[in-house]
Amino acid sequence: MTTEVPTGPRRSDATRAAILEAARERFAADGYERATIRAIARDAGIDPSMVMRYYGNKEGLFAAASEFDLRLPELGALPSRHAGAVLVSHFLDRWEQDDVLMALLRAAVTHDAAAERARSIFRDQLGPVAVALCPDPAEAPRRAALIASQILGMALARYVLRLPPAVEMTREEIVGWLAPTVQRYLTEERP
Amino acid sequence: MTTEVPTGPRRSDATRAAILEAARERFAADGYERATIRAIARDAGIDPSMVMRYYGNKEGLFAAASEFDLRLPELGALPSRHAGAVLVSHFLDRWEQDDVLMALLRAAVTHDAAAERARSIFRDQLGPVAVALCPDPAEAPRRAALIASQILGMALARYVLRLPPAVEMTREEIVGWLAPTVQRYLTEERP
DNA sequence: TACATTTGCCAACAAGCGTTGACCAACGTC
DNA sequence: GACGTTGGTCAACGCTTGTTGGCAAATGTA
Q1: For chains A and B, what is the number of CB pairs under 8 angstroms?
Q2: Domain B13-65, CATH
Q3: Is the Cβ–Cβ distance between A138 and A55 less than 8 Å?
Q4: How many Å does it take to go from CA A36 to C1' D17?
Q5: Which end of chain A is more exposed for a tag (fewer CB within 10 A), N or C?
Q6: Which residues on chain B are in Cβ contact (under 8 Å) with A120?
Q7: pLDDT band at A74 (very low <50, low <70, confident <90, very high)
């Protein structure tokens, strides 16, 4: 719970933003430990000590850089039989247009705070979608975890491990294969 | 290609094995960069310099510690409609009984050599299974990658990120949900 | 103009890292 | 029993890391 003091725009806002952007790129490319404060500062064109002044320490910098909104679409509007395809397609978009998911995944594998952040994102943002669409709300967390497993797995294979066949597939092919899976995890009765 | 000089058992074999075991545990628990040679040596009860003597450097130690055989069962024997369930069940076994898959995953996310090792394991060991069972052999690599995405994703969710619903599911529930997915990726005609 | 705050750089710290080479003890072989 | 080989420890190296505190310039305020 951060106490929100209504502070106006500061002269240093551009620097703060540059640091955050560099941090997101480095965390995404290198993971938590190999993304050094010195390298981030170099990318941002400032001194490493500025990072400490504005974000306290490396942990605080990561916390600030890894805030994330999945921007999941409202699925109530369209027929629920298309939910799987919409979800898969949307996740591919988010993965390719924003570094934060990659930073989160790369860091979460070796860094506890990042893993906790990932857990809370899936719980708080994907969870409600499952509650709204799956047959038994009590089962929603399980459904959400199954969906997360397939989507995270494809992201891992395609963007991190770069398994050649996963890289070579088109977006449409991926949606074609994964959408029925996600659809089933979301809406089908228990197996 | 290692030239296989037929060398007999050495007095140091126990030490070498202790180093490898400690290395596997540390790489599995901490990933590549946080698993330090000093910590591995401490776990093995020897001096860090021994690690260097026996494995050259950290890279060589990881290469030795991450050799892995998926031990995929012969699937030709049983009806191919059960292949999905057998595969999922077998992967869960391998994941829970051997540290190496965890070490490989944790390291591959931030370390190129580990990612290459992971790619080659899936290509050389899972690939042939797909060739044998999927309708069009030319499509086998893609099928194998899809299967890898679902299985890696569940491993990531359950064993690495520890999403609570994924941790709480029983083995049987996971097989029940994932087997149809893997089965479809393996044998179903193109969507 | 005088002063306080903010923004930034610089130099250094202590700790930890992978890695090296000298050295000693135990062993196997003649 | 002498001796080369092997298994092991110890102390140190050069380097990088996160982090700190001091100082200078720019900016805002009276």
Answers
A1: 142
A2: 1.10.10.60
A3: no
A4: 8
A5: N
A6: none
A7: confident
